[in-house]
Amino acid sequence: MNNSSYFIVAGLVLFAIVLIVYIFRYGGTKKIVVPATFTDEMMREILEKQVRFYRHLPPDEQQTFLKRVRYFLEHTKISAEKGAVVTDEDKVLIAASATIPLFHFKLWVYRNLTEVLVYPDYFDERFSTASEQRNVAGMVGSGALSSKMILSQQALRNGFLNMSAGNTAIHEFVHLIDKADGEVDGIPEYLIPKSLIEPWIKEMHKTISEIRSGESDIRAYAGTNEAEFFAVVSEYFFKKPALLKEDHPKLYHMLDQIYGVSELP
């Protein structure tokens, strides 16, 4: 075998190895069969009624949003746990929560999530819904629960009420976005423009300090650490954009750049 033939064979072998790895990594996930009841009309009605972000999109982008919601439902299992009865509306709201923070990034999918577990109520750190100390509304799993998310059904639904200031499901999906670069540290490196990283870190630490000293109206939980700060202010950004822009214009502008939204209504 001459040198040119050797390189051709070696190239073909290398290509075959790469192809096999790709198939095992990305082609092995079975598409979930979405029930026939999930018509576009049904999902559109839920989104129109419950999801403010969707209502303010132009018609062509609403159609794209609907497709992204369906894609999530086709690729992420949603399971009822601890006696929860998960409705079609719950499933659409979970998919909408996943879609909102990444809507303006056309090629992004949640590679680090395979299943959302829905509990009927808040739970404690041992996943009990009966404990008097239950105060956890949502959690991104680790260890044995890696690639899973746990959501309180009550918190999910409350997040889409107008009177609610936050949205637990969006909060947890933001944690997944933050986690995608390997660290949950409040710096979503796959989204944030490199030129914005240093100013974002500076503003984040400044605002966390203000929260901890009681000098900010952003809820105290955001002062826990950088990861929780990013998740909480992201809730604020998507749930009450006009208020965030008025009260914290610098934070609003930075989040606008991170999420590529360009002025939420």
UniProtKB/TrEMBL annotation:
SUPFAM superfamilies, sorted: Metalloproteases ('zincins'), catalytic domain
Q: Which PANTHER family match?
A: MTFA PEPTIDASE (PTHR30164), PROTEIN MTFA (PTHR30164:SF2)
Which residues does UniProt call coiled coil?
none
UniProt keyword annotations, A-Z = Membrane, Transmembrane, Transmembrane helix
Q: Which residues cross the membrane?
A: 6-24
Name of the protein: Zinc-dependent peptidase
Per the UniProt record, one Pfam family is Peptidase_M90
Q: Report the Gene3D superfamilies cross-referenced here.
A: Collagenase (Catalytic Domain), Glucose-regulated metallo-peptidase M90, N-terminal domain
CDD domains registered for this protein in UniProt: Peptidase_M90_mtfA
Record bears the keyword Lyase: no
